[in-house]
Amino acid sequence: MTSTLDTPAFDSLAPCESGLWSHGHVTVERVAAGPLTLTRDGGKLRVTHALTPEDLSERLVASVTASIEDADFGQDEFESTMVGLVRSTVDGALEAWAVYYRNSLGELLDGIADFAPIHERAEQLVRGSVLDLGSCFGFLPLRLAQAGMDVTATDILSGTMTLLDAVAPELGLDLRTLVCDAAHVPVPDNSADTVTAIHLLEHVDESVGAAVISEAIRVARDRVVVAVPYEDEATACHGHIRTFDTPSLTKLGETTGRPFEVFEHHGGWLVIDC
């Protein structure tokens, strides 16, 4: 999931009332019982839910997406809702996020989460030290750190990296973070053995995507690992703006002039040898 935790006044660690979280025109409230509901009143959006701490994990992305399938939902509203669900379920900012991260990592490692097979394959493909582009919440870097790898998480939004810096020690994990544009990474050439871009390219247009791949090749000593979803239509509420298929990934690999492999596994993969 991409994130706009860095938008003005959007602080995922800011204090809030017990069971109630608001940002802009979005209010999320925990109630005693009932399904997740969305109510619009003029320009305001009210979300109610009865989630428990055990419900907080990355799997919420799929359930919230299903809940808003017929609603006119933009990316900002989706992300505000997701953050609000976490913050209104558990009192205390760091406590709430630690629950969310701990549950999510457990489900990813146990194979329960939708993204589990993607992260598992990514871990199998990386070699040596890893620099991850567009890390967002940083679940893949955390997984790699838990496996004992030397890993750096990067994202263009400082809010996501601030959150990751705060939560990682709570999980007993050690990694580095770097705030940067994936097309302009402020590190020397050949800085990491592997550079990963997992479900990043669908968020940027073709020209920016090409620049990201070029930058990844510059930074990687050994290989670049790219994964994208295969969608009939770009999922707007997740911030997707273009779709991929095997021919388009193959074309992208050909533009690099490097040896590469394209294959399908819960979406498409492009592995480039540097």
From TrEMBL:
The entry's keywords: Methyltransferase, Transferase
SUPFAM superfamilies in the record: S-adenosyl-L-methionine-dependent methyltransferases
GO terms (BP aspect): methylation
One Pfam family hit: Methyltransf_11
Record-linked InterPro entries: Methyltransf_11 (IPR013216), SAM-dependent_MTases_sf (IPR029063)
Signal peptide: none
Boundaries of every Methyltransferase type domain copy: 131-222
GO MF annotation: an example: methyltransferase activity
Any coiled-coil regions, as ranges: none
Name recorded for this polypeptide: Class I SAM-dependent methyltransferase
Source organism per UniProt: Rhodococcus tibetensis
